[in-house]
Design goal:
With 412 residues, the protein is an alpha/beta fold. It contains 14 helices and 14 strands. Strands 5-4-3-2-1-6-8-7 form an eight-stranded mixed β-sheet, with helices on both faces.
């Protein structure tokens, strides 16, 4: 049964009794988490377990001013959660009496294909995710393995999967369909799904608050190691840059982004690589890393460009031009914008990228303040007073979105 997130729910600060939700962010050998008391939306603790499956793993937790770091063998993600719960129930510094205090563990799940929404994890959810392993090879397999392990080792704690694709369910069909045979689209669930849903949902919510209007047209620019833009009209996603998989859209740090599939046979012919090898290379040695042959990190590329490296400068230029191209399409799709919001690691800290994206757009009503842009810290504006389109930097909070979705799921 779908447990839908109610976007009109009141803030959880009105709740009196604690509702503790652990939000998990998984990698193949890592587990990062935040523990929220959703009666106040306060983050009580955060932690991480690295090198899962190796001889010794590093388990770190921060609770207020107290930090605990332990080395121990952690064989899988289920054991990792047990290890973090040991720290959270520390007799002196812990915030839990025992594991039963956790109401749910929430996952920012990536791709469920035929399932898009908020679900309590069961066999159907795991099967739907497995069907999309080929579309999200870096994301789905570790999440599936971790969910199975946690379900076995922590049977008393509900697991909730909040799929990244869910926020984009409001995109019109004309903007999410590929020009492929209808049979393929219907039978194999091939269409433009969109990702970074938790981040764009947070920007939709927060931008409505700072702009003091629910009908605003906002372009959310989530720029980081993985980047995407989303056009948001009255709080709803109406267009996004990523498509069937997280490999698409803007150039990523090491993933190709949009790419002509008919170039692949030529690459196979000239290199002797297999199809799987080519796809793996595009997913791990493409993007900014592939173009520059230096790094996928914007900071490294900016330093190299300053030192005269033309490949680094080209990678930066391609990244900016792709952002501007997609931005222009979204301005047309919505008939303009009331605000452009930058978020994610690059969006929040990359003043040079923000300036390059916004430069020369005065005819579109976008006037950025170069001095304010350089001075940005935290949530800030950097548009000129006469700018028709407001320019914002808003730090995202994907974890609180997942935690809110978990609370709504528990209340169904």
């Amino acid at each position: 049964m779908t447990l839908a997130f109610n976007e009109t729910s009141p803030h959880y600060s009105t709740r009196k009794s604690p509702v503790l939700v652990l939000v998990a962010n998984l990698g193949s050998t890592s587990f990062k988490y935040r523990l929220y008391d959703m009666s106040t939306e306060q983050c009580l603790a955060r932690g991480a377990v690295d090198r899962i499956g190796q001889a010794q793993s590093n388990c770190v937790v921060e609770i207020g001013d107290w930090t605990d770091e332990r080395e121990m063998p952690v064989e899988d993600h289920g054991v990792a959660v047990s290890a973090c719960l040991q720290q959270l129930t520390d007799p002196e510094h812990g915030v839990l009496k025992d594991a039963s205090g956790v109401a749910a563990i929430g996952f920012k799940a990536v791709h469920g294909g035929r399932l898009s929404g908020v679900f309590q994890v069961d066999n159907e959810v795991l099967e739907a995710m497995s069907e999309m392993n080929a579309a999200a090879p870096a994301h789905n397999p570790p999440y599936i393995a971790a969910m199975r392990s946690m379900r076995d080792k922590l049977p008393g704690i509900p697991l909730v999967a909040a799929f990244e694709t869910d926020f984009h369910r409001t995109i019109p069909a004309s903007r999410r369909e590929y020009a492929i045979p209808r049979k393929w689209a219907n039978e194999f669930h091939i269409r433009k799904y969109g990702f970074h849903g938790a981040s764009h949902r947070y920007i939709a919510t927060r931008s409505a608050e700072v702009l003091q209007r629910n009908d605003a047209r906002v372009i959310s620019c989530h720029l980081g190691g993985s980047s995407s833009l989303t056009a948001i009209d009255s709080g709803k996603s109406v267009l996004t840059t990523m498509g069937m998989t997280p490999q698409t859209g803007l150039p990523q740090n090491n993933r190709v982004g949009d790419f002509d599939p008919f170039a692949i046979p030529l690459i196979i012919e000239r290199t002797g690589m297999t199809l799987d090898e080519v796809l793996s290379h595009l997913a791990s040695h493409g993007g900014l890393l592939g173009m520059s042959e230096i790094s996928g990190d914007i900071r490294d590329l900016e330093q190299a460009a300053d030192d005269g490296n033309t490949q680094a400068q080209l990678a930066l230029d391609v990244f900016v031009q792709e952002i501007r191209r997609q931005l222009g399409g979204m301005l047309v799709a919505m008939g303009g914008a009331d605000a452009i919001v930058f978020t994610g690691g690059i969006g929040e800290k990359g003043s040079r990228i923000r300036a390059a994206v916004c430069e020369g757009l005065e005819e579109l009503g976008i006037h950025f303040d170069a001095e304010a842009n350089e001075a940005v810290k935290g949530e800030s504006t950097f548009h000129q007073s006469g700018s028709k389109v407001q320019l914002w930097v808003i730090p995202t909070n994907e974890e609180i979105i997942v935690a809110r979705q978990c609370v709504d799921a528990l209340n169904q």
